[in-house]
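Archive transcription. Copying these from loose printouts into the bound notebook so they stop getting lost. Printout 1 of 2:
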Amino acid sequence: MISRSYTNLLDLASGNFPVMGRERSRRLLPRVMTVPGNVSEFDDDDQASSDNPSSVSSDRMIIVANRLPLKAERLNGTWSFAWDQDSLYLQLKDGFPEDMEVLYVGSLSVDVVDSHEQEHVAQILLEKFKCVPAFFPPDLQSKFYHGFCKRQLWPLFHYMLPFSPANGGRFDRCMWEAYVAANKLFFQKVVEVINPDDDFVWIHDYHLMVLPTFLRRRFNRIRMGFFLHSPFPSSEVYRSLPVREEILKALLNSDLIGFHTFDYARHFLTCCSRMLGLEYQSKRGYIGLEYYGRTVGIKIMPVGIDMGRIQSVMRDSEEEGKVMELERRYQGKTVLLGIDDMDIFKGINLKLLAMEQMLKQHSTWRGKAVLVQIVNPARGKGIHIEKTRGEIEETCRRINQEFGYHQPVVYIDTPISIAEINAYYHIAECVVVTAVRDGMNLTPYEYIVCRHGAKKSVLVASEFIGCSPSLSGAIRVNPWNVEATGEALNEALSMSDGEKRLRHEKHYRYVSTHDVAFWSRSFLQDLERICVDHFKKRCWGMGISFGFRVVALDPNFRKLSIPLIVSDYKRAKSRGILLDYDGTLMPQNSINKAPSQEVMNFLAALCEDKKNSVFIVSGRGRESLGEWFSPCKNIGIAAEHGYFLKWPGSEKWETCGQGTDFGWMQIVEPVMKQYTESTDGSSIEVKDSALVWQYRDADPGFGSLQAKEMLEHLESVLANEPVAVKSGHYIVEVKPQGVSKGYVSEKIFSSMAEEGKPVDFVLCIGDDRSDEDMFEAIGNAMSKNLLCGDALVFACTVGQKPSKAKYYLDDTMEVRSMLESLAEASEASNFSMRVLDDAL
């Protein structure tokens, strides 16, 4: 029985959102929606079309994040709001076109409890700041942000598994439902202001990972991007999350998914491969995932900083005398600087231990080097905050006591201004970042800009932070290795000024050209590129809850109508029917691969009609196919992708390949055996004309790697042999050149034309890549006049996916149903009586 909590989750995902607080009507917005109807009509989640012409032609960007880029304060009953100039979401506007309007959807950093006051605040923010606030009930806010986000997602994405309830907290279904409910609230706010045909939506960070499903469900063609600002863990860690597939599928409802580094993107792609069976492709420098006819782009671009903002604050700190004050305070000292949030993953204690190690091993720095460690307040009620703070303070006291009056560590845990932080950057000889896991960390970038006046800088950076790959001149360290990190600190302080200048110039060139505007501009350009075909395809949604996805297909690609094909079938005089076997007549996951009596009945009925020429065109061997279909004497069989062909009414097999020399098999089989022995779960299928290496049951990642290596190996050793080496879905196949389902299909049509029975009705059904050759061959047959000029062609693939066929049926059950309908419409058919006899 489904649990009540689970059914509630389905309600949330399907749009039946519970009312929170007392019901009130929505306010009227200054900008009307372009979808017909009132805003209130969008309280439910029924499918709404986004195909209506927009009333506004210019593009607009809607930025959706957990926090609005605003500072809010209430004094004496009056609200005061101002832009937060240090917010990334405000700064990224610099990369957009000047005429692009930007709206923000998010929550405030302060609570607004009263419903009337919420209306008042919302109106002010919309009119003056173009911001749409989302207000949470207190209990929902706690479970959503401090619960699921900070106690479950944040630790997991930073590689901390909940081995015990105290270590991060076990998965809590109630908190997950709160996360879904909060994402639903953000969705409702977006719906209030969106013009689905004109607007771009850019969603930010792990707080809103299921929001894309809600938006895609309402607006099938919405142009939507997502950027993850935290790490994405390896599949071995991520797969421990009970809602792993729900989150992956929700993210795949975006058009473009961004990550800071290739490692994060690679982990995401591996999860999609292992858990959803999706493979990515790289084309002309772009990475994409094919997902039900849509291409989901993968963007790898580390975020930058606002150069102008940093330089402006630096000038202010100099004018206020803060730089001179710090220079006097630390006169005669070499300053190492650390600036981190109070967080278990920032590695602050490891940094202090490395400083202690350096002073022990290199006594010349005692009394000369000082580590200034600035700790910003924790961003949330994360796990182990107080314990971490206690450990840091204890380590600072111990080190300072150990080295007496030198006081080598200055620990600052009180809030300080941005101007003062920049002043510390200015005087620091080296910045040290020892985070054990961090999504990006912009501290090194800010330091480089602030040190441009001195023209020299040096960085000691953890290899586990997102900015590390872009800082090739930094001294990279494994912060867990305290001794090596201590040596890196000594190396940084001992470095010559000339080398410091060279490293600084290299870093400054990168940071100044890859700023936040460059980052947002690049993301928008890729989003525009990947959405360019949105209105050229037919789109419809399918699936429930977080299994929802949009299928996007060519406008000429449509479901095969059984009444239509039956009507055309009855009028035809010469019919060619070509049927794949596995995945078409028989489900792929079937244990017993032999055809059922039901299949044999309608095939026999079709073959009895003299107007029909029915062929099974399969990759299977001729022995199994010949045995299975022996009761049906009038059926033709093309086995092993058409290498062997048996005509209807004949018992003789003929070969359609160019040669009969299979000496190459003695070269191929030892190679395949070698890979089979080293790849658990793989096997070799030996056919008369081909050898197939299958790795469907192997580890997906390793199997794919081995298949790629085998493909290159075989292409090398078979370069002078008359064979083709092909890779397919979990297979590598070696077969004679020129053998394909397309070739044998043309041969069948050509033979029928030569016999004076040119085909005026073609039905061709298949489900995989090899069947695409058949669909293509039909077009070639038409151009070669092998078919009647007015021939009716029904090329049909199984499943809704991109194909050269113009029709589709959903599954093998629909294929059987359609063929049964044709059998009943066949001349002199006793199909109904045969079915009745079997039932009796």
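Printout 2 of 2:
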Amino acid sequence: MAAPETSTAAVPSLYTNNALRNAFGGVLSFFILLLIGVMAFSIRLFSVIKYESVIHEFDPYFNYRVTQFLAKNGIYEFWNWFDDRTWYPLGRVIGGTVYPGLTLTAGTIWWLLNSLNIPLSVETVCVFTAPIFSALASWATFLLTKEVKGTGAGLTAAALLAMVPSYISRSVAGSYDNEAVAIFALIFTFYLYIKTLNTGSLFYATLNSIAYFYMVCSWGGYTFIINLIPMHVLLCIVTGRFSSRLYIAYAPLVVLGTLLAALVPVVGFNAVMTSEHFASFLVFIILHVVAFVYYIKGILSPKMFKVAVTLVVSVGLAVCCAVIAVLIALVASSPTKGWSGRSLSLLDPTYASKYIPIIASVSEHQPPTWPSYFMDINVLAFLVPAGIVACFSPLSDSSSFVVLYIATSVYFSGVMVRLMLVFAPAACITSGIALSQSFDVFTRSIKFQLPGISSNTEVDAAETSSATAEAQNDAVKTEKSEETSKNRPSKKSKKKEKEEKPSTKAKAEKRLIALPLDSSVISLLLLILLGAFYVVHCVWAAAEAYSAPSIVLTSHSHDGLHVFDDFREAYAWLRHNTDVDDKVASWWDYGYQTTAMANRTVIVDNNTWNNTHIATVGTAMSSPEKAAWEIFHSLDVKYVLVVFGGLVGYPSDDINKFLWMVRIGGGVFPHIKEPDYLRDGQYRIDSQATPTMLNCLMYKLSYYRFVETDGKGFDRVRQTEIGKKYFKLTHFEEVFTTHHWMVRIYKLKPPKNRIRGKTKKSKSKTSSASSRAKRSGMGKKNPWH
């Protein structure tokens, strides 16, 4: 009688110890998450500490300008804003062509801070929005990974995401782009989907639809979500994992999420009319067919079930055929088969280079190189395979989703370097799972093999397992007391109870299996060393590689640090020395910055929605000076801006981008042909360059007076002397060149009134000759008509 009393007395103390341990673990996890959020925020402040609080890159300047308009004029004016300073003379409806999530988020933060009498400027809020949401993304990663493999894996994954260079590149202070908030929305939507899948709660399903709506508002990459989740649902159905929880997790997302997505003006009816969304609807139909089959199976006899299945399958095939026929008709009516150009370039990496050069011309749309993987995710590339293996032991609905996520994101990151950003969270999740389980195995092995601990540990483990088993049995007995009083245990149940005891012992023995002590210690030290290397690399990437704003450039040499502030110098000159209504022509890369910083009207910008308009500017840059003047004059252009890096060695200048101007222009205007600008298939600017290249407008505007800098005209980017050194401009005049020659601004010369001068001259000198020419019809045609 003493033994049972001892065991029953040990159960409350066991529960008390477990409760205290869980409470302490929860508090510790909270403080660790808080520190991870602080780390995620602070590691992204190098750009502000080293340089200044300034907006980075090109697209963020448009977002900043839109946020300024929203803060000044309000939400209703924002939805109806027609911007006449872009895409002249077409203009642009801002409210219907932007993803408003980032703008509304920053505008709301600014409004709340000012309501609390915290007078921050709109620019300051925009600069620090990305670091704030990087902390939120780390916490969302913790929640997602915790649902898959527990708290330890969640904390590890959150710490990895807080520092991963791929995400830092798009979320440093000043990187005010859509991805700043979209990555958080992406991860949080996945977490709510997994949470709903694990719990079957309609509350989480509703939150999942709202999170998806926020993702749709924030970034066009929402199509990744609405295709990945249906793929996972289909995988669960095919592998026999259908359940009511799966239905609750998916059906409300498709219905409510699609309705909410259609409310976003830039999406609208595309949520139901484009091919990117058709997979979700098809899986939605399949899910209901499977649910109906399971329902019928539960209420009918086996014979009736076969008849019903035959009927359902026949009707379902007829409905599916009808739906597929309608979809084929809709898709066939579109020249791109219902897919957007970017989506087609993901499915077929060669599509953009063949048919849409404007997409292929963007550097972030190019495939990544192998070193870029090591740069952006570093040692995670070696941990991802181990994390995938860990997801299969055991394989659950949530872990299969992670495997599917990592597989698809790896493919898309290999097609487009920009999508390394989507791959980074998946890599951090799988690497966190691998590190967490590895640390668990190694530390347990060391713990069990230390002298004086192993025997006590085995006894404690056996006592703990037996005590918990007894407690669970007692709980089961109390819950099912009525059933046990009515029904006595059968022989089969007794056999099962006898078989359960050795199985629990076998499981306990499996838990106690450990690696050799020396191997465990060495492996643990190697993992710590690997983590230290990852931290050092991430800090270096945040401080050096990704902190420098593209608008302010720096270089180190033997005489110290050099700062190149030519872009802001040029935009300031335009703002203070040109009329408000003057139009500025440049390549589309600089459109957003010109509009936001110089406040001048541009012909094209980074939105790239009108390929013909961009091709017109590309044609002008590729044409001789006189023809280019006529094109720009027809567009009411007064100034032309070119970026030139030949003096200081800046490689991202317009000369290096020039072939894309030729290709885009030639795609619309056939008289522009790329071979005319190449010498034996090589792009050259030296004495071997073709006459077409040496006489085009881009060459002349870039190299005008360049020989005066060193007497030779040596281009430091192309590492050669230019071919045409001495020439004059007849239709353009130089009005401003920045300190380092990085930005050059030219003004179109006004057209000469040649008709009146020629008429007076002909009347005074050769009136008889002109009359004879008129009678014979040999007079020259006016070139300006």
